[in-house]
Amino acid sequence: FTYSESDMRRKLENYLGITLSDDPSQWLNITEYEDGNYVKTLMVDGQAAINGRQMRERVLKYGIKSAAFTVSYEDGTFTITTYGYGHGVGLSQNGANILAKQGYSYVDILKFYFTGITVE
Asked: Given its phi and psi angles, is residue 95 left (phi above 0), alpha (psi -120 to 50 degrees) or beta?
């Protein structure tokens, strides 16, 4: 996913209510990841900290597939590379729907995605 410098400036400033510096290479700096390579802390121009979920949902309005991502900046363009899709829970809604249509029960579907569990 790519975003122009002007588009990223507008999105970040609108969400955070800040004025970004004139050095876009400093606007987005991932400082910490959590389990599953989800962005735990993203420093925005040294002025504010947000997490990957806020970036995905609030800043980019679901414009990227996941809160597990890397970001780079070059020649006026931000490139965000995502890993996986969704919220990171581990259950595909589309896959679960297909299994249900094939006659699997909700217990079977849960056990398919979360191996080793007991459903009571």
From this structure: alpha
- Work out the number of other CB atoms within 10 angstroms of the CB of residue 91: 13
With a cut of 80, say whether residue 95 has pLDDT above it. no
Task: Give me the chain's average pLDDT, please.
Answer: 90
Residue-wise pLDDT tens digits, 1-42: 999 999 999 999 999 999 999 999 999 999 999 877 899 999
* Residue 5, burial from CB neighbour count under 10 angstroms (0-12, 13-18, 19+): middle
Could you give the C-alpha distances from 115 to 21, 88, 94, in angstroms and in order? Answer: 48, 16, 18
3/63 Cα distance (integer angstroms): 10
Alpha-carbon gap, residue 86 to 94, rounded angstroms: 11
Cα–Cα distance, 38 to 83 (Å, whole number) = 9
Task: Identify the residue whose tokens are 């597939």.
Answer: 65
Distance CA 46, CA 67 (A): 20
